[in-house]
Write the structure tokens for this entry.
Amino acid sequence: MARPEQVLVLEPQHELKFRGPFTDVVTATLKLSNPTDRNVCFKVKTTAPRRYCVRPNSGIIDAGNSVNVSVMLQPFDYDPNEKSKHKFMVQSMLAPYGMTDMEGVWKEAKPEELMDSKLRCAFEMPLENDKSHESERDQTVYSSASSVKTELSALPKSTSASLDDGEVKKIMEECKRLQMEVHRLREENKQIREDDGLRKRKGTSVGSPHSSAMATSAMRDEGLSTRILALCVLFFVLGVIIGKLAL
């Protein structure tokens, strides 16, 4: 009894083309489409299993859906005089309703339920013109990348970091807030100095020289503490900015 006609639509239909050079893995894509209203089980087999890696090599394609199968040819020494004898076969069958074990279904499948399609493999090396174009294109890309890298390295860190507008905005807001805090501390320091000066003048008229010296020392200590606090705030601002730009 003749096997039923393949229900899956294959792209490509008859030939898988692999384009060199073959010094690295070369991948061809096989698209399997299921135009029916039934789920379809499939398997992909090859006559040279050690030369290819197929992912996925089996599965189920739901009704109306498709699957892309990656066929990866392993590196080898290409001989243009040798024709490829490698072949692939896509085997399929309609999935039974309520199927739970796909391997069991394949084992129990009858020959008249199986459908298959065969594809041959073709190896192609790029033409000399294509090689020259690819070389020129790679050189152009490399030159462009080098130019961009040089320009970026010539830019200051602040310019590179300014590309992130959100981070810059946050830093500027933090700087503004800390500047206002420093200004407030300076005003408080100024007011304290004025108050201390007033107390000093009063202390001079009614107090002893020892009291005057103590008042002067206290005023200097408070002024110095305020200045140290202001310097700490400024160093914190600089540290935040440098840290953000370094990132």
